[in-house]
Design goal:
638 residues, 12% helix, 14-stranded antiparallel β-sheet, Jelly Rolls, disordered N terminus
């Protein structure tokens, strides 16, 4: 795969360098500053290799890649002419590229027009920095730095004199976290980010990016068996049949919303019993039928077995796409993902897929919709390129889905309360792991409808992955007047501080204030379950609400007539006690036909009038019936 420059090309480079000896050359900057980013010093720094014509320095890239490489050179002559070539191994075909003097990466070999780069070196130390970001280098792969020409101008001879320079060091900058190649840092929105906008019309728009994590998974991946394999046989694969993919339903991650959701990324951990060298994967997702992103719908009527295909976007290799297009398939998107290749993947393989913006436009996110992960190809022996087969076990063990929820909610204001509660995720006691606080302690009143809650947390050291859970009291009988997120949430790369915005789901807030069941007389819970820092502090809690106007109360028609039958007797005391003992059946919004009414609560408020219905009101009515007090109401609230 490796192709060096031919002698003819080398000769042209020498001629170029000699012709240019009288003028400064700047094809690649000399003495240029190393690009910003983490500097990884090569093992060979401090070397002393003489570089003269036809000298070659051979090295390897760091296993996590690099954004640039800097060669440190030492020479005894100022203004020395130097011409060099650089070639490197790449992750994909053609697997070796040469750097042309124009700055382009090109294939070498016979007939190649690749030319070396000429520059001038200063006396003592000079540096040549080569940008690797567009080369697609293979992490841990090999490279070559070659000297084609090295000479200085000798005034006494009036001519160029050949000499050598010394390569004294090789530095690398950047790596997988900052390169254009595969990275575990998503380019889409990340968990923990949020925004709030008061629309000044009684509404606000809140957006929050959340990650949901599934652990202890056991989904086997068997290369060579995909959905098309089973479709060709006219059968649906059973859960125990070998297959190279897995589809995660959004309901698996606790998502029940059908709108207001944008899927940002899918992170998957694949584990193996052996070291994996090359690992290739692709992803897909449900999209609107027949939309430009529906790559399967485009195959209808053209590809065998695809007459009912649709609702799905699939990444595909360049060759696969070309094959489909040659058969007449016209895809709606100009750019379709070609999958991801990981080099030197090892036994613990971390995979990340950012959903493309063009796909997000058409993505459907109902609870039954899915996002898929597919294992395409792999090798387990870097030297012999031994392919992974169906006999080689690979298993998905963990997955994280990151999504953004954006809602326009009824909004009056928010109240922020300092808490200062310390939580310890290693504690055995729930009280030490969880923050439990009454809405009333957060200045939330009975006429306020809660739509979102923000928790400000901090730690003395980097939390890194922050795993937490949230819950709220509700007025619904189901689940014992309680709602808790069914799947734990995660903030990745949380740092020492995080602002967690919890936008309450439709199951709690409904589509109008009348259907909001967050209980202002209840409480909220924030639980800290895992993080690199054992302890965190919940510094503040801010609650976003809509305040309803208090309804005007009717005038009293008859003091003590709680059941509104135009008389006062023992049944009025009974309905008051029933409304207190069983509010869901006999309270203001009770299900029984004979539940107490608003008029009844006004008539029945006869003890400490103005304090609302209590058991003391029933006692006052009984005392009046026994003649122990002369009239109702018995007293007024002071």
């Amino acid at each position: 795969m490796k192709q060096l420059l031919t002698n003819r090309v080398k000769a042209s480079v020498v001629s170029l360098a000699m012709a240019a000896s009288a003028i400064p050359l700047c094809t690649v900057p000399v003495n240029a500053a190393t690009p910003s980013g983490m500097i990884v010093q090569a093992e060979n720094v401090g070397l002393s290799q003489t570089m003269k014509v036809d000298s070659v320095y051979k090295g390897t890239f760091p296993t996590d890649g690099a954004d640039s490489v800097t060669f440190k050179l030492s020479t005894s002559y100022s203004g020395q002419s130097f011409s060099y070539g650089f070639g490197c191994s790449t992750a994909d075909s053609p697997y070796w590229l040469e750097l042309d003097k124009s700055g382009k990466w090109m294939e070498g070999g016979a007939g190649s027009k690749v030319e070396g780069t000429a520059c001038k070196l200063d006396k003592a130390t000079s540096e040549i920095t080569i940008d690797l970001k567009k080369a697609g280098i293979k992490p841990g792969g090999s490279f070559e730095f070659r000297c084609y020409y090295s000479a200085h101008w000798d005034n006494s001879k009036g001519d160029m004199v050949n000499n050598s320079v010394t390569l004294t060091g090789v530095d690398f900058s950047g790596g997988s976290s900052s390169s254009d190649g595969p990275s575990l840092s998503s380019k889409n929105k990340k968990s923990g980010s949020w925004s709030f906008k008061d629309n000044k019309d009684g509404t606000a728009t809140i957006s929050s990016t959340v990650s949901k994590q599934l652990d202890e998974l056991d989904y086997k991946l068997t290369v060579g068996y995909d959905e098309d394999y089973y479709a060709g046989k006219g059968v649906e694969p059973d859960k125990d049949d070998p297959i190279n993919s897995h589809k995660f339903k959004y309901s698996d991650f606790g998502i029940s919303e059908t709108k207001d959701i944008t899927i940002e990324s899918l992170y998957v951990v694949v584990e193996s019993d052996f070291d994996v060298d090359k690992f290739m994967y692709g992803c897909g997702t449900n999209v609107a039928e027949g939309s430009p992103a529906d790559t399967e719908y485009a195959k209808r009527g053209i590809i065998k077995g695809k007459d009912k295909a649709g609702y799905w976007y699939n990444e595909m290799g360049e060759e696969s796409r070309e094959e489909f297009e040659e058969q007449g398939v016209e895809f709606g998107l100009k750019s379709i993902g070609e999958g991801t290749t990981l080099e030197g993947a090892g036994k613990y393989i971390e995979c990340l897929w950012d959903v493309p913006a063009d796909v997000q436009k058409y993505q459907t996110t109902g609870a039954g919709d899915s996002i898929g992960f597919q294992f395409w190809y792999g090798t387990k022996d870097a030297a012999k390129y031994t392919e992974i087969t169906e006999k080689d076990p690979l298993t998905i063990t963990s997955a994280v889905l990151t999504y953004t929820i954006t809602k326009t909610i009824p909004y009056t204001g928010s109240t922020k309360t300092s808490v200062g509660k310390s939580l310890d995720c290693t504690a055995s006691s729930d009280s030490k792991k969880n923050l439990e606080v009454d809405y009333s302690d957060l200045d939330i009143k009975s006429n306020m409808k809660v739509y979102a809650i923000r928790f400000d947390v901090s730690a003395k050291k980097d939390i890194k992955k922050l795993v937490y859970g949230t819950g709220t009291g509700t007025t619904k009988v189901v689940n014992d007047y309680w709602y808790q997120e069914p799947v734990n949430s995660v903030v990745l790369e949380a740092g020492k501080k995080a602002e967690i915005m919890w936008v309450l789901p439709n199951e709690v807030v409904g589509d109008s204030p009348a259907k909001n069941c967050a209980n202002p007389d209840g409480k909220i819970v924030f639980g800290y379950y895992y993080g690199e820092s054992d302890a965190i502090t919940v510094d503040n809690v801010e609650v976003y609400y809509y305040e309803e106007e208090e309804p005007s109360l009717p005038e009293v028609t008859l003091w003590g007539d709680a059941n509104c039958d135009n008389g006062v007797d023992l049944s009025d005391a009974v309905i008051i006690m029933q409304s207190l003992a069983n509010p869901n059946k006999y309270g203001l919004n009770g299900t029984d036909l004979k539940h107490i009414t608003l008029q009844g609560t006004v008539n029945g408020d006869v003890c400490e009038n103005g304090n609302g219905i209590t058991s003391a009101d029933a006692s006052s009515i009984q005392r009046k019936l026994l003649g122990l007090i002369p009239s109702l109401p018995e007293s007024y609230k002071k």
